[in-house]
């Protein structure tokens, strides 16, 4: 169990950031600054909640049935998928989303924005699955928008190749009423159809289970939610792929950590390096994946 008092002595920012004991006994970082509120779990390096002060609804969906148990992934928020995303023959979405991370630093910027840096390094568990030495760092910036930068440091003597994603669950009023703008004309691989390659025609609307990897992206993606009268602008320098996922009604019914109607309340739009966009990190080098989520009206 992490020492909450010791963590606060090191990292607390008065009237803005503190470490608390959260669900499952996990150490969690609460942020409440002039721009937004947020909650981050040090277990799994996981942003659980973010909501600008001037918004009535949260940016992120977090399941009320989420499990907060060592060795389990938390359903909702922004899970970190690394060093693989959808590779065959390995644990789904990598091994860092169910491990304890360390707080590296906290910082209050001049404009009232808060920065938090978490990190995890190779250990006995990681070596049993992936025999490379690394440091993985997640910088979370909580301001008018939510920005996350995932940096891979290769501490090995050889290059290694990774696939990765920030598996963001975006909260929506009704998934069947939204549209995803910015994908028209781009190709995608359809996981529900044997990874067949197709091309998007027009804006994307959700009418059932969806699991696609969009590639060769050049511009921002916009999630338009007419019910909540808002748009979420998703920008991701360093990533040319985006994963779009919703489990639909039937699959959700088989998932213990989701309510039967929860699929209506989110859409996953994930900044990723996967499929033909995997990243090779040179020995002694590093690579960054950044995504910014901004709510607009």
What would a concise description of this structure say?
The protein is mainly beta and 297 residues long. 7% of the residues lie in helices and 41% in strands.
Question: How would you describe what is shown here?
Answer:
The chain is mainly beta and 297 residues long. It has one domain (4-296): Beta-galactosidase, Chain A, domain 5. The protein has helices at residues 4-11, 124-129, 248-253; strands spanning 17-21, 27-32, 36-41, 46-52, 80-81, 102-108, 114-121, 134-142, 146-154, 160-162, 164-166, 169-171, 179-181, 187-190, 196-199, 210-214, 221-225, 230-235, 241-246, 266-273, 279-281, 286-296. Strands 5, 11, 12, 14, 15, 16, 19 and 20 form an eight-stranded antiparallel sheet that branches. The chain has an eight-stranded antiparallel sheet with strand order 6-7-8-9-22-18-17-13, with no helix packed on it.
């Amino acid at each position: 169990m992490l020492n909450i008092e010791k963590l606060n002595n090191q990292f607390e920012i008065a009237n803005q950031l503190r470490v608390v004991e959260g669900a499952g006994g996990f150490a969690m970082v609460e942020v409440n600054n002039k721009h937004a509120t947020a909650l981050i779990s040090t277990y799994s390096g996981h942003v659980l909640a973010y909501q600008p002060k001037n918004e009535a609804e949260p940016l992120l969906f977090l399941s009320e049935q989420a499990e907060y148990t060592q060795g389990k992934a938390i359903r909702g928020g922004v899970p970190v998928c690394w060093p693989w995303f959808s590779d065959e023959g390995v644990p789904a979405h990598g091994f860092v989303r169910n491990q304890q991370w360390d707080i590296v630093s906290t910082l209050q910027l001049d404009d009232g924005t808060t920065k938090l840096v978490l990190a995890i390094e190779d250990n006995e568990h990681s070596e049993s699955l992936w025999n490379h030495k690394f440091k993985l760092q997640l910088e979370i910036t909580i301001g008018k928008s939510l920005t996350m930068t995932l940096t891979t440091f290769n501490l090995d003597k050889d290059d290694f190749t990774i696939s990765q994603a920030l598996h963001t669950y975006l909260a929506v009023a009704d998934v069947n009423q939204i549209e995803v703008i910015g994908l028209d004309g781009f190709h995608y691989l359809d996981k529900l159809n044997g990874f067949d390659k197709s091309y998007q025609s027009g804006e994307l609307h959700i009418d059932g289970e969806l699991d696609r990897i969009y590639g060769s992206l050049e511009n921002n993606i916009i999630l338009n939610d007419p019910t909540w009268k808002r748009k979420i602008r998703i920008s991701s320098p360093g990533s040319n792929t985006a994963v779009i996922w919703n489990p639909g009604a039937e699959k959700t019914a088989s998932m213990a950590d989701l309510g039967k109607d929860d699929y209506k309340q989110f859409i996953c739009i994930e900044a990723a390096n996967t499929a033909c966009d995997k990243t090779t990190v040179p020995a002694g080098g590093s690579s960054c994946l950044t995504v910014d989520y901004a709510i607009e009206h």
